[in-house]
From TrEMBL:
GO terms for biological process: cell division; chromosome segregation; mitotic sister chromatid cohesion. InterPro entries: MAU2 (IPR019440). Belongs to the SCC4/mau-2 family. GO terms for cellular component: nucleus. Its main location: nucleus. It comes from the Eukaryota. Keywords: Cell cycle, Cell division, Chromosome partition, Mitosis, Nucleus. It comes from Lachancea fermentati (Zygosaccharomyces fermentati). This is LAFE_0H10968g1_1. It is found in: Nucleus. The keyword Repeat does not apply. Pfam families: Cohesin_load.
């Protein structure tokens, strides 16, 4: 064997040995000495590759292999981007007069990695221009590199351009990448996630295509699992039932548990081009943990129901498992370890946020936790609202605009603010200024702008919520406020429609027309079991669209009893008064006596807890 080749091979193997050992100890690095040991190993790995480049006359192909690995270490481990770019640019110049097309494209790909790592708007714009020119050049080659660089182009566009423009470019790229199944499926999952994150409507045909991606030998099981996660997110986003999707996960995990050992997977674009995708949610323990978390979030509104209070059961488990995963050793670079830990810490913060919401639902209070700054004003504002301190609540809600734009967070906040303003106006009676009316109307206009502009009107939970909010702000006895309304408002029809599919009574039609109601109820969607939402829906519909006295009694009695499952004593008191009126009209003497006794007990508890008689 040629001594030169032997020496090159020895140095190359040593470089791998040093970096592999560094990655093995990365998970246990906790002291300065251990950190120094880690970076000494990385430095030795880099020096071995530099020695190959400096001490030997390499072929162009060998130079590309060594330079790519050297640049990868410099980018990930040292962030010495100028040195990485110098090595890559030198090889690019060497390849200029050769016919080594694949090697040329590989160097271009790594140069774009350097630009991405710089995380600077100037370099991002330059990369977009260079990618545009490169893609034009590749247009006539029919090379699989075209699809790789289209993906790279999208990554840079996400940083610099408006979400709507990026979504349009995603659609162009998806249309062009269909020939490469794995990459196309991966990009489709990314596109759907991008749309969910940026509140962009997803085309039905693309959701259908997502559903059609099946488990096959052509796709890595990790990609199939990610596709399942994306579908689950879409269901949660729409507030739809996730039971069937959870069963799909169970089936896949039972069959592929042993394959979920690494935190990465490979996308094969061609025999020569394989893209490695890193993710902190691909190993079996991570998949199970994230699945429990998403299940908890989806069922959060059911936390009052002992049969389906999955958030109460699962969020503590998610926190425990996440802390264990943070401490568990992983063979990877320190930068990958840092990304992984950041992901876990974010997950713990979200657990704290959802536990706070759960506390507000169940106990009208919550413990101080490490809630993300973005959500803390919302939690504090709702807490003050439950304590009937409107001024402090409004002050907290006003802080939310200081954070990055989040349409749903804004919409939730505005709905709470709108209710506070309505309560203030109602309490003022005749002494209401025009400015107070203007504030309420302006707030409603802002609600409508976000509600319609970001597709919330396609979500039945939000449609029902806005319907309830409009009715309680326009009709007595729910309010004294005389806000403007037109004859063509759809809200009364929507109230009836949602009631027919979610009524608490055992029967009745609401208006006596059984044939019509049976037709409508088939189309009316069952809403998630948010107790307050169902309570208000049935209370309003029972008061306004139900005319049968027996059905009124059934609805009011059910509302009165369900009110004690959650921390909403005033709502329960309201339902009790309503039930007392209905039972009196129906001459149900026994029910009147029982309701009076329960109301008396409830009033006593309210007075003892600090409420005052007015």
């Amino acid at each position: 064997m040629d001594d030169r080749k032997l020496q090159i091979g020895t140095l190359y193997a040593l470089s791998h040995e040093y970096s592999d050992h560094a990655h093995k100890i990365a998970g246990s690095v906790s002291t300065e000495d251990e950190m120094r040991q880690y970076y000494t190993l990385i430095s030795m790995s880099i020096k071995a590759l530099q020695a190959i480049k400096e001490q030997f006359q390499l072929t162009a192909e060998q130079d590309v292999v060594v330079t790519v690995e050297l640049s990868d270490l410099l980018i990930k481990e040292t962030h010495n981007l100028d040195l990485a770019e110098m090595y890559l640019s030198s090889v690019r110049e060497r390849l200029r007069e050769t016919t080594l097309f694949h090697e040329k494209m590989l160097i271009e790909f790594f140069l774009f990695r350097v630009a991405k790592a710089r995380d600077d708007s100037r370099y991002t714009r330059e990369a977009i221009r260079n990618l545009t020119n490169l893609l034009e050049m590749l247009e006539t080659t029919n090379s699989p590199w075209s699809d790789v660089f289209r993906f790279t182009y999208i990554q840079f566009c996400e940083r610099e351009e408006k979400p709507g423009h990026v979504a349009a470019k995603y659609l162009e790229v998806l249309e062009r990448t269909k020939v490469h199944k794995a990459l196309h499926s991966f990009l489709l999952c990314r596109y759907v996630c991008f749309c969910l994150e940026n509140w962009i409507e997803i085309r039905d045909d693309l959701l259908t295509e997502l559903l059609a991606i099946e488990n096959s030998e052509d796709l890595p099981i990790q990609l199939i699992l990610w596709k399942q996660f994306v579908e689950l997110l879409v269901l949660i986003f729409k507030d739809e039932n996730i039971t069937s999707k959870l069963s799909d996960f169970k089936t896949i995990l039972s069959s592929h548990k042993k394959e979920l050992l690494a935190s990465h997977f490979e996308l094969s674009v061609s025999p020569e081009i394989i893209i490695t995708v890193e993710s902190p949610i691909l190993q079996y323990a991570d998949v199970k943990n994230i699945l429990l978390f998403l299940q908890s979030v989806s069922y959060l509104t059911n936390c009052y129901d002992k049969r389906t209070n999955f958030s109460t059961k699962f969020i503590p488990k998610v926190k425990k498992t996440t802390n264990e995963l943070i401490k568990a050793p992983h063979s990877s670079s320190l930068s990958d370890q840092g990304s992984r830990c950041s992901f876990y810490e974010r997950l713990l913060e979200l657990c704290a946020f959802y536990e706070s919401l759960e506390g507000l639902i169940l106990h009208a209070n919550c413990e101080e936790q490490s809630i993300p700054n973005k959500y803390k004003p919302l939690v504090d504002g709702m807490k003050y609202q439950l304590e009937l301190d409107s001024q402090k609540a409004l002050a907290k809600f006003s802080e939310i605009s200081n954070f990055e734009k989040d349409p749903e967070l804004e919409l939730i906040t505005l709905c709470n603010v709108f209710n506070i303003h309505l309560g203030t106006i109602s309490a003022a009676g005749q002494n209401v200024s025009l400015d107070q009316y203007k504030i309420a109307n302006d707030t409603w206009d802002r609600i409508q702008k976000i509600y319609q502009g970001y597709g919330f009107d396609q979500n039945h939970i939000w449609r029902c919520t806005i319907t309830i909010l409009w009715i309680t702000s326009h009709f007595e006895p729910f309010t004294n406020v005389q806000l403007a309304k037109t004859d063509n408002e759809p809200y009364m029809d929507q109230l009836k429609w949602y009631y027919l599919g979610n009524r608490l009574s055992g029967g009745g039609s609401g208006d006596g027309n059984n044939e019509e109601s049976n037709t409508v109820i088939d189309k009316s969607p069952p809403l998630k079991k948010s107790l307050l939402l169902h309570f208000l829906l049935n209370y309003l519909a029972g008061s306004m669209v139900v005319h049968d006295l027996q059905e009124k009694c059934q609805v009011s009695n059910t509302c009165f009893h369900m009110g004690k499952q959650q921390a909403m004593p005033l709502m329960r008191y309201l339902a009790g008064i309503w039930n007392l009126i209905n039972c009196s009209l129906a001459m149900k003497g026994k029910d009147v006596a029982v309701t009076k006794a329960k109301l008396s007990s409830l009033v006593q508890k309210l007075l003892e807890s600090g409420f005052t008689e007015t």
